[in-house]
Amino acid sequence: MPGPVRAVTFDFWQTLFVPVGGAATRLPGLNALLAPRRPDLGEAELEAALLAAGEENTRRWRAGQQFGSQGLVAHLVAALNLDLGPTESEQLLELIEAPPGDGPLTPVPGALEAVRRLRHRGFRLGIVSDTGFRPGRVLRRQLSEVGILDCFEPGGLAFSDEVGVPKPDPRIFERALSGLDVTAAEAVHVGDLKFTDVAGARSAGMRVVRFTGCADDLEDGPEADAVISSHAELEGALDRL
């Protein structure tokens, strides 16, 4: 029988924070940057290239491969026939990773309070997250901006662009467990998706709580040890596992 829970890892999007961005937040900055190189580039062509890159990112993610911001930049350069110098390439990458229109993170209701309560109780906390087009260094900065970066163990932050594999690969969970200095039997992962969070954490030997308060995953897949719809339920669920 599993022992007491010593550590908790969280998924990032749709568990701690409401998803942000998309093509709309990137279009103005990208238009301004690329117009001198492609005066004929219309917004429709640029938006189509962004959407196609998003579909490729999803395909790679489903296949267990990392695409990320570098992949998006390479896709745009090829799809739009761009000839960019080093400075423009860096500017393009920056616009992809941290669009000016993003604004601050929007926490899922009750998420920050739950994190702080668990930290106060002595749990070692981490994050296991697929980063999409926002790398771990950007997410760390955003965690600091909302005031909870210090709640997490630095070594317990496992972002897919840094580990090199996305969920459900058990290696990304194992990276967090190593940084938290706990065994899988001592840790619980909290996330929203069956395919990535539940299947991945379980393959690493962890217990799992599935969070449905932002979006309920209705796809087929393994179910978690507990399912909660509010972060107010999290402590009780952990105490019962």
The overall average pLDDT, rounded, is 94
The structure class reads alpha/beta
Major sheet summary line: 6 strands, parallel
Counting structural domains, the number is 2
Helix content: 40-55%
Number of strands: 6
- Outline the low-pLDDT stretches: none
Supply the CATH class of the largest domain: Alpha Beta
CATH superfamily of the largest domain: HAD superfamily/HAD-like
Query: What is the ordering of alpha helices and beta strands?
Result: EHHHHHEHEHHEHEEH
The rounded distance between the terminal residues' Cα atoms is: 10 Å
Strand arrangement, major sheet: 3-2-1-4-5-6
Evaluate the radius of gyration.
19 Å
Provide the CATH architecture of the largest domain.
3-Layer(aba) Sandwich
Description:
This protein is an alpha/beta fold and 241 residues long. It folds into two domains: 7-19 and 104-240, HAD superfamily/HAD-like (Rossmann fold, 3-Layer(aba) Sandwich); 23-97. Helices cover 45% and strands 11% of the residues. The protein is built from ten helices and six strands. It has helices at residues 23-34, 43-62, 68-79, 86-97, 111-120, 136-145, 160-163, 170-180, 194-203, 234-240; strands spanning 7-10, 124-129, 157-159, 187-191, 207-211, 226-228. It has a six-stranded parallel sheet, sandwiched between helices. Helix 6 (136-145) links the parallel strand 2 and strand 3. Helix 1 crosses helix 2 (43-62) and helix 2 packs across helix 3. The longest helix has 20 residues, at 43-62. It starts with 6 loop residues before the first strand and ends with a helix. The model has no long low-confidence stretch (mean pLDDT 94).
